[in-house]
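Reopening this ticket.

The earlier resolution said the output was attached, but the attachment link was broken on my side. Pasting everything inline this time so it's all in one place.
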Amino acid sequence: MEQLQFCAPCLFGSEGILADELKRMGASDVRAQNGRVLFCGEVSLLARANLRCRTAERIGLLLGQFRATSFDQLFEGVKALPWERFIGKTDRFPVKGWSLQSALHSIPDCQSIIKKAIVERLRRTHRVTWFEETGALYRVQFTILKDEVTLLIDTSGVGLHKRGYRQNAGGAPIKETLAAAIVDVTRARLSPIVSDPCCGSGTLLIEAALAAKRIAPGIGRRFVSMEWPLVSYEIWEEERRLAKEQERPDQQIDLYGSDIDTEVLQIARQNAHKAGVAAHVHWNAADLTTFKPQGERGIVLCNPPYGERLLDVREAQRIIRELGRVFVPDCGWQYAVISPDEKFEELFGRPAKKRRKLYNGMLRCQLYLFD
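Inline output:
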């Protein structure tokens, strides 16, 4: 079978996690780079990665990479790529992207040049003079970083963090892909009990349950590439079947979520129900000061509110001090807290056993791990 090249953007700090995910799916030539992972595979891997990836933001077909410091170089570089291999005579192909630390910094100009170059290429190969763009959607995405141009066609559509279970959320919910990365780093999927005393809309606990039960995060949603001739209906159905075979419906895991906000707890309950894991999660309206882990051993995952999210800095730091008090050391439990506060360990009251740099969007954070 023909090998295709792919590029999967991801949150900074989670590249290694995503690379391991893709290797387990059978991807070849996997290369982790800043904010993305490049890999190769057959067309079936396109469907598999969209259905199963927990930490990828989306899956893109990699059309090519080249250096450009002028619009002429950009035009010729884009025109040299095999767009006709994927885009048909009637298909839609809007262009969007970004540029950083590059000579070509005007996004509208870059969009226009790239669109013109694709049209010129398709005119020659399809032997048409006008593109009505009424057919299947092929979103062209470009990035220009330090004059290095990367061209992708998006295969996902709505971002992969949109699992479909979180129709409602609290004030500043953690992104599903970041929650999945935290679950992976802490190996929470292997823990018999997982608790979150600042659970908000429940994302960390829901992602832990999905991972433990091996439920593919994209199993219940659609993708833009399902309309493409490239990926047949049979391929999608087979990959869904294989993903369902991986599930472990009898896997036992107990999850405990508490929050002082009763309204957001109701949202968490609804989200867990939509995700199909409601039977495994116990919700409780409680203040952080009363937190005690349930059981003899397990793991606590926590994304406490902080100044940039919901609270003023003084209140956010008070919560960190409270976490240090209620997260009792050497009691059979592990604790994982993500925070952007550079004084976190000082406020918490003891040094972390391990740290892992992760980004919450563009906000640089540390995942602090304690025993």
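Reporter confirms the inline version is readable. The chain has a mean pLDDT of 94. The chain has two domains: 4-154, 176-217+247-370.
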